[in-house]
Design brief:
By secondary structure, this protein is mainly beta. It has helices at about 15-20, 120-125, 240-245; strands at about 10, 30-35, 80-85, 90-95, 105, 110, 115, 135, 145-150, 155-160, 160, 185, 200-205, 210-215, 225, 265-270, 275-280, 280-285, 305. It starts with 9 loop residues before the first strand and ends in a 13-residue tail after the last strand.
Length: about 325
């Protein structure tokens, strides 16, 4: 299997963002997506605590979060013919010939491809062999490649990213590895994180209990802090330890949003230098206690944090 390279860059449109600059008297911001390597393959056979939904399997020290034991019944060592499956929360997910979900690791690199998961990590997250992998329907075979691991074995890469299975996935369709340690994510057929497969920078998700809510490019729920200020100047009152638990949503172009009210949709620079997105001039955040797309563990925390509606309003907040 030979590895070829190509890179793509995406530059967020600044013009549309600039047009909204005067809405809250703040500056605009941009974000970008970096390039990825690709390979070709030859044909083959207050502000609260972490919510209840946090992954119990995540290990703070290493990020790979399993006990190193092989899944019940074992997993096939071969990759086989890769396939694309639909997941209700993640969209299109890449699976191996047995239907097991394939993952990528944030500590790895795609340019150049390199695996940084060895030892106990590789027991918890078995590398997918490159030798017999082939592309099924909906998969660009030119994205399949390989990387030589430290032990000399060849590992499959997708869009340059080394591919793994998760030892705790025991049957086809399992995605128990999603979000483990905040570093492991299911692969989309493109090599991106599955949660990024078709989502813009900000979009709307239909929550069964809360209705239409804002989600970021990873599908993670977006929140509002009712102690913030929007007028006449945007002010975030979540700083220090608060910002660690409630990370600021990075600015995106208004053109990279779907279903979000355009009024006051812009970025601003906080006093601490962090750039943050606003909706209707209200600062937007995610919650560290949400470990997977669809989680809303931050709703109502401390009586001050609420899921953000597409209009920028806090859903379920007490009326003043």
């Amino acid at each position: 299997m030979k590895t070829s390279w190509r890179s793509a860059s995406f530059v967020v449109g600044a013009a549309a963002m600039l047009a909204l600059t005067t809405a809250c008297g703040q500056e605009s911001g941009t974000s970008s997506v970096g390039s990825q390597n690709v390979g070709a393959t030859a044909p083959a056979g207050g502000y609260g605590s972490v919510g209840a939904g946090a992954s119990a399997s995540a290990s703070p020290g290493n990020g790979y979060g399993a006990d190193g034991q092989q899944a019940a019944g074992g997993q096939s060592t071969s990759a086989g013919k890769l396939a694309v499956t639909d997941n209700a929360e993640l969209g299109k997910v890449l699976t191996d010939g047995a239907g097991l979900t394939l993952y990528r690791y944030d500590e790895d690199t795609a340019e150049p491809p390199k695996s940084n998961c060895d030892g106990d990590c590789a027991k918890a997250w078995p590398p997918v062999p490159a030798d017999d992998a082939s592309a099924g329907a909906g998969i660009d075979k030119s994205l399949l490649g390989e990387v030589t691991r430290a032990d000399g074995t060849k590992q499959l890469t997708i869009g340059g990213w080394p591919a793994y299975r998760y030892a705790k996935d025991t049957k086809a369709g399992d995605v128990t590895g999603q979000g483990v340690g905040g570093k492991w994510f299911a692969l989309a057929p493109t090599g991106k994180k599955a949660s990024l497969a078709s989502l813009p920078g900000l979009s709307v998700r239909k929550d069964p209990k809360l209705g239409e809510i804002v989600v970021d490019k990873n599908g993670m729920t977006v929140y509002r802090f009712i102690k913030d200020v929007a007028w006449p100047k945007v002010i975030s009152n979540c700083t220090g330890a608060c910002l660690e638990k409630w990370p600021a949503v990075a600015p995106v172009s208004p053109n990279d949003t779907k279903g979000i009210e355009k009024k006051g949709l812009m970025g601003f620079t906080r006093p601490d230098g962090v750039k943050q997105m606003t909706v209707d001039c209200w600062p937007a955040y995610t919650f560290s206690g949400d470990t997977a797309p669809g989680d809303t563990n931050g709703q109502g925390v401390g009586g001050t944090w609420y899921v953000m509606a597409p209009s920028g309003k806090p859903i379920g907040a007490p009326k003043k």
